[in-house]
């Protein structure tokens, strides 16, 4: 039976085994999917051992996505630009290939929610790995503008410069951001720490859609904050988690799970 896994540190909390088990059941694929906790100093050895023992594919989570990127013999364009890899597999020559499915996962989740990026004025808060992974797929969907902002402006500025050839992306210091915006993406992990960004509430308007890449049983603190300003819609990142997994599953198996909504509902419950 083909073997897959998610590797991280820590990894016990990962929902990926449940997600891929549901995908395998839907698509009648014969496979197993497990969690592997790699020691911080032994990630590369863990990956090599997994594939040496016949493993077919790995998902990579924190804090190893950049190290996975550095290991790869071949990268997709979206992974190359992201500087991070969350999906690993071997090609027919046995070379290690890396992809980043985070961006397409977020775009697909937005599409499922009836949200189009086309001609939208988008604000992205954060400039870390999560944001790097979504910028190319966002720009491919032809927004009017993407504004990056971050607590450390230099990081947002550098990121905007590295993607500017692909579309209308720029940066602003967080204290200079003024709205409103059509779509706001919180790409920071601040919600995990119950913190809010120091940003003007002018970013919100009645037609604004707000998306927090983090997810929780109830509203994240960022989405609860946005609701106070009567925005049109708030969405958390659980759908992104499932959709990025569906893209990885397709890369590995050549079969696309079509019923992602039932998986999202099962995880919510």
Question: Which key features would you list for this structure?
Answer:
single chain; 269 residues; alpha/beta; six-stranded mixed β-sheet
Summarize the structure in words.
- Helices cover 38% and strands 19% of the residues.
- With 269 residues, it is of the alpha/beta class.
Sequence-ordered SSE layout with sheet pairings:
Elements (H helix, E strand, L loop, with lengths): L1 E7 L7 H12 L3 E7 L5 H10 L4 E4 L4 H7 L2 E2 L1 H6 L4 E4 L5 E4 L2 H11 L8 E5 L3 H12 L4 E5 L3 H11 L5 E3 L11 E4 L22 E4 L8 H7 L5 E3 L2 H16 L6 H9 L1
Parallel strand pairs: 1-2, 1-3, 4-6, 7-8, 7-10, 8-9, 10-11, 11-12
Antiparallel strand pairs: 3-5, 5-6
Give a quick precis of the structure.
The protein is an alpha/beta fold and 269 residues long. It is 38% helix and 19% strand.
**Order of SSEs, N→C?**
EHEHEHEHEEHEHEHEEEHEHH
As residue ranges, the low-confidence spans are none
Radius of gyration: 18 Å
Beta percentage is 15-25%
Helix content: 25-40%
Mean pLDDT metric: 96
- Reading side by side through the largest sheet, how are the strands ordered? 2-1-3-5-6-4
Shape annotation = globular
Instruction: Say how many strands there are.
Output: 12
Largest sheet: 6 strands, mixed
């Amino acid at each position: 039976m083909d073997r897959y896994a998610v590797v991280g540190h820590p990894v016990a909390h990962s929902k990926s085994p449940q997600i891929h088990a549901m995908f395998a059941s839907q698509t009648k694929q014969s496979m197993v999917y497990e969690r592997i906790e790699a020691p911080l100093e032994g990630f590369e050895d863990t990956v090599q051992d997994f594939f040496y023992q016949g493993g077919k594919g790995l998902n990579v989570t924190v804090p190893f996505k950049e190290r996975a990127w550095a290991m790869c013999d071949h990268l997709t364009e979206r992974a190359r630009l992201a500087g991070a890899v969350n999906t690993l597999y071997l090609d027919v020559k046995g070379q290690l290939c890396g992809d980043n499915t985070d961006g397409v996962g977020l775009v697909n989740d937005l599409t499922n929610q009836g949200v189009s990026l086309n001609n939208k004025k988008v604000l992205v808060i954060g400039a870390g790995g999560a944001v790097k992974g979504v910028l190319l797929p966002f720009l491919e969907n032809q927004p009017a503008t993407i504004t990056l902002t971050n607590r450390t402006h230099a990081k947002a500025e550098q990121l905007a410069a590295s993607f500017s050839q692909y579309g209308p992306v720029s940066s602003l210091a967080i204290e200079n951001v003024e709205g409103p915006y059509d779509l706001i993406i919180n790409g920071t992990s601040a919600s995990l720490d119950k913190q809010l960004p120091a940003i003007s509430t002018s970013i919100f308007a009645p037609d604004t859609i707000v998306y927090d890449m983090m997810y929780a049983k109830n509203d994240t603190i960022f989405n609860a904050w946005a609701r106070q300003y009567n925005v049109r819609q708030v969405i958390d990142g659980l759908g992104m988690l499932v959709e990025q997994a569906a893209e990885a599953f397709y890369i590995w198996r050549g079969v696309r799970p079509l019923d992602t909504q039932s998986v999202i509902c099962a995880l919510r419950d």
